[in-house]
Specification:
The protein is of the alpha+beta class and 246 residues long. It folds into two domains: 157 residues, Beta-Lactamase, CATH 3.30.450; 59 residues, no CATH class. 39% of the residues lie in helices and 17% in strands. The protein is built from eight helices and eight strands, in the order H-H-E-E-E-H-E-H-E-E-H-E-E-H-H-H. The chain has a six-stranded antiparallel beta sheet with strand order 3-2-1-6-5-4. The chain has a two-stranded antiparallel sheet with strand order 7-8. A hairpin with a 5-residue loop joins strand 5 and strand 6. The protein is elongated. The termini are far apart.
């Protein structure tokens, strides 16, 4: 069965890229969460799955050897289409998954429960999911706990994203506070590779700013004296008195 794409898929994928989490090494923080999820739900498989453009990639996994699968066969690709926890009690009786190779072949999924990992801006990145090879149900307490763990995954992703942004900002501050070679005549700036560029280009490369250009009064008088005379005359002319003042 063809997987439906979420609304604003391009925005969702861009949000996923901003976390710079795809294809990163395993981390104990995330592995602790999947281990807890598997233990609390009493299942052999638990995953933190991030749904990329053509695949689902597992940041953390318990009970599964592969690190990713095609998005076309992903249960999580269906789970991110909704805000609530998606529960499949028996995949053999669900038309979306009855012919899915993850069901008919290894790992032989029969039960699935996935909580969407939703960013503060509302974009679903993937899921925290638990899987069993036999049909089953979860209790309300297990579902609520799984949802709480999913929120912790998002919190950890946010912390890492903000920390990365702060580190980049500090690097820029250190660069801008350092000794920058600048030409005494044209005011061009030499970069670390020995190439010269304009001040505008240098700052745009190292700070989130854009430039607009104008001409100051001093340069206006020097390079455009006729225009400067008109502008300065207009600036000092008194405004005509109002009728009330007369």
């Amino acid at each position: 069965m063809t997987v439906q794409m979420p609304d604003q898929e391009a925005v969702r994928l861009e949000a996923l890229r901003q976390y710079q989490i795809l294809d990163t090494p395993t981390e104990q923080t995330y592995d602790d969460i999947t281990a807890l999820a598997a233990f609390i739900c009493d299942v052999p498989i638990a995953l933190i799955s991030l749904v990329d453009e053509d695949r689902q990639w597992f940041k953390s996994r318990v009970g599964l050897e592969v690190s990713e699968t095609s998005r076309d066969v992903s249960f999580c690709a269906h789970a991110i289409l909704q805000r609530n926890t998606m529960v499949v009690q028996d995949a053999l009786y669900d038309q979306r998954f009855v012919d899915n190779p993850l069901v008919t072949c290894a790992p032989g999924i029969r039960f699935y429960a996935g909580v969407p990992l939703v960013t503060p801006t509302g974009q679903p990145l993937g899921t925290l999911c638990v899987i069993d090879r036999r049909p089953r149900e979860l209790s309300k307490t297990q579902i609520r706990t799984l949802e709480a763990l999913a929120r912790q995954v998002v919190t950890q992703l946010e912390l890492q994203r903000v920390s990365s942004q702060l580190a980049d900002a500090l690097d820029k501050i250190k660069l801008m506070a350092g000794l920058i070679p600048i030409c005494s005549y044209c005011k061009g700036i030499r970069n670390d590779e020995g190439y010269w560029s304009t001040v505008e280009k240098f700052i745009e490369q190292h700070a989130d700013v854009e430039f607009t250009h104008g001409v100051c009064d001093r340069c206006m008088q020097r390079h455009f004296p006729e225009v400067a005379e008109v502008l300065l005359t207009q600036a000092i002319e008194p405004e005509p008195a109002s009728e009330a003042e007369n």
